[in-house]
HigA family addiction module antidote protein (Marinihelvus fidelis), 101 residues
Amino acid sequence: MSRMFNPPHPGESIREDILPALGLSVTEAARQLGVSRVTLSRLIHGQSGVSAEMACRLEAWLGGPEQGPSAESWLEMQASYDLWRARQKPAPTVVRAPLPA
């Protein structure tokens, strides 16, 4: 996987693309997903990440991998975002493990 410059939080895609395309409010989308409005609101505003459970819910909600993003793709988006964010911080001080002789 190539490095992406400033990848979007996966919740941004839900907020800016999916909800408007479906004509849904956050409240209605949360009801359809089987989560609280607060849970979905935190996700679409980047305050929480896509968990494995949420990735499965999103996949099922959007028609499975045949019609929409797969659970794996939601997790890949989240991992790309998290890794990019981690790399924006100063590098941690670590001691390299010795290589076997």
Q: What stands out?
A: The domain at 10-86 is CATH 1.10.260.40 (434 Repressor (Amino-terminal Domain)). The two ends are 31 Å apart (CA to CA). The helical segments are 10-22, 26-33, 37-44, 52-61, 64-67, 71-87.
